[in-house]
Please model this.
Amino acid sequence: MGESITFWVLAVVSVTAALGLVFSRRAVYSALMLGVVMFSLAVLYAVQDAPFLAAVQIIVYTGAVMMLFLFVLMLVGVDSSDSLVETIRGQRFWAIVAGLAFAALLGLGIGNAVLSAPKGLATANQAGNVPSLAELIFTRHVFAFEVTSALLITAALGAMVLAHRERSEPKPTQKDLSRARFVRFGQLGRNPGPLPGPGTYARHNAIDMPALLPDGSVSPLSVNRVVARYEAAEGTLPPEVERILQEEAVSERTNGQTARPLGEEDGK
Model:
């Protein structure tokens, strides 16, 4: 009685999670639904007196493979639009063929299990489920077991080769980045130093008030150009801000760039 109740409850849960896995638009949600399906299968294995399969289902699939898949999705990120782009030509056709073949194989397996009684199960489990299963794996089916292990290793190596990307140019070092900043400073007059550090502060919590550096001078990076043009037109532009804008205009003329008069709007 308890086995039947457990089966029907987990059947509903696993089928619902499987439908969520297929129809979910987000890859992270699909991965979570896959974890629910795997956990439900582990409980069903345990109910059917297969503790080894239940432990493997939780430790290997749910605990290792599934969580690794989920963490990769969370770190890398997958947009829902990416899944609509076909990277392999004809993959939909072959996916439909593989799905039909799997459905036929699944139907044959279910029909064989329903129409015929299991044979040799009591004999195979005479010494216990786990010892008997280990004996069959490492004696009778050891070749197939090793071939499957080699196949999984080959698949992992293939995934690493496909995901590896060669650089078209060497990665710039800190010295190269520093030299590039000073080259831009010589060509465009841009400050090669970093942005103002934590010592920068402002006396007003407003966008029209520029920030002050630790020495009390105005930080050019904090000057709002839109507000400055408006204040220049109204004649209320602070002298220190006006001096900074004039220095920038002179620098632009020196570098061969056309500087717009202060107060002139875009397109006017």
Remarks:
- Residues 258-268 have pLDDT under 50 and may be disordered.
- The radius of gyration is 34 Å.
